[in-house]
Amino acid sequence: MISRILREERTMKAAVLLASWVVRFWFGSVRFRILNREAYQQFIAGTPRKDNAVVATWHRHVIPTYYFFRSVKDLLIMGSRSRDGEFATRLGRRFGLQFTRGSSSLGGHGALGEMIEYLKTGPRGKICSTPVDGPQGPARKLKKGMLVLAKETDAFFIPLACSGKRVITFSRAWDQTILPLPFSEMFIDFHPPFKVPSNLSESELEEWRIKVENILNQLTDRVDRIAGYCG
């Protein structure tokens, strides 16, 4: 039992190291074109940032967005507790990302609590993010966790989408994950930030969930059209 665990740990470490080299080579030539630069400068890149933000995207976008956010400071991401989530978390940490572990199906309440504490403690200007249809879908159906986070912490909620013309689409994956090809251009867009009212009832929160799901889907479709994404 112990020997098997040790073998699996060695395999995981080797796979993460190899993947980090591949990612640096693969993404080193990818160019990101930001469409809503005002929101990006105020809530993501600006220093010092004055407001907390919750950035929400679909699982489909997770590979390019994780790389895009690699140099963003004071960013906390919720990563899945699955084995795939462990791999993604270790890989992300090699690029400077920080994670709390949980998901809608396992450990989500604890991880959400950590995010609430993170945004409420210390100076403002911090960011929390996670794919809001993860970890297992259904694709492009928003779960409430990040809305609750924004509601409880008075943080701005910012839907994000990205796309490109020269991408690989993992069509058999539940989320239709996209991966930009080397030397390609990715378009990334931020919906104008908004606040989620703190006094919502359960039924009103569900109305907001549907509203924000539609916003994120419309944003995704818009960026796909601008980028010339063919699916």
Structural features, described:
By secondary structure, this protein is of the alpha/beta class. The protein has a single domain (2-227), classed as Glycerol-3-phosphate (1)-acyltransferase, CATH 3.40.1130. Helix content is 44%, strand content 20%. It has 7 helices and 10 strands. It has helices spanning 2-27, 37-45, 62-68, 83-94, 108-120, 145-153, 202-227, and strands at residues 31-34, 53-57, 75-79, 98-101, 127-131, 156-164, 167-169, 178-180, 185-190, 194-195. The strands form 2 sheets. Strands 1, 2, 3, 4, 5, 6, 9 and 10 form an 8-stranded mixed sheet that branches. A two-stranded antiparallel sheet has the order 7-8. β7 and β8 form a beta hairpin. α5 (108-120) packs parallel to α6. The chain is globular, with a radius of gyration of 17 Å. The model has no long low-confidence stretch (mean pLDDT 89).
Give the CATH level 1 class. Alpha Beta
Uncertain runs are none
Give the number of helices.
7
Largest sheet: 8 strands, mixed
Mean pLDDT metric: 89
Rg, nearest Å: 17 Å
Structural class: alpha/beta
Number of domains: 1
Shape: globular
The portion of residues assigned to helices is 40-55%
CATH topology title: Glycerol-3-phosphate (1)-acyltransferase
Order of helices and strands: HEHEHEHEHEHEEEEEH
Alpha carbon gap, first and last residue: 44 Å
What's the number of extended β-strand segments? 10
Salient structural properties:
10 strands, eight-stranded mixed beta sheet, alpha/beta, two-stranded antiparallel sheet, single chain, 7 helices, 44% helix, 231 residues, Glycerol-3-phosphate (1)-acyltransferase
